[in-house]
Specification:
The protein has six helices and no strands. By secondary structure, the protein is mainly alpha-helical. The longest helix has 24 residues. The protein is flat and about 45 Å long. It starts with a helix and ends with a helix.
């Protein structure tokens, strides 16, 4: 199986190719905010919310002291099984992490006016970035 840095290099090279294709097809990249949402999601999916959060990996170590939030995930999922399913694994990690983020967001920002909320389009594109990064991780694992 490829190591953490191999996954990162592969993902970022793939992101460059995907970005060029999206630009040529005039999809997403024509709107800088949508492209940033995709890029940030891809970065988060490559470096933080990876299929390797269920083992003591470099990805989990990047969380520092916050890696404790992934302990229940590690207990529930075995490495290489559901966590390495292209669609299901990413969706489970996103839902798991979203529950934590939305809880914190609600507690911190519930008093802000509604116009400060992030559009659901950007949230969706951000999540697409995570899913694509996770899919590339799994594809590389399958190839090697």
């Amino acid at each position: 199986m490829p190591d953490y840095n191999t996954h990162r290099v592969f993902n970022y090279l793939a992101f460059l190719v995907i970005s060029v294709l999206l630009f040529k097809l005039q999809i997403v990249i024509t709107d800088l905010k949508l492209f940033l949402a995709l890029g940030i999601g891809f970065y988060v999916g490559t470096d933080f919310i990876t299929p390797d959060l269920d083992i003591e990996s470099t990805a989990i170590k990047r969380w520092g002291k916050l890696k404790v939030i992934w302990l229940p995930y590690k207990w529930l999922f075995k490495h290489g099984q559901s966590s390495h399913n292209i669609l299901y694994g990413a969706i489970v990690r996103v839902i798991y992490f979203s529950i934590i983020i939305l809880s914190v967001y609600y507690l911190l920002f519930r008093s802000l006016p509604p116009e400060t909320m992030i559009s659901s389009v950007y949230v969706f594109i951000f999540l697409v970035g995570i899913v694509i990064a996770n899919a590339l991780h799994i594809i590389l694992d399958v190839l090697f």
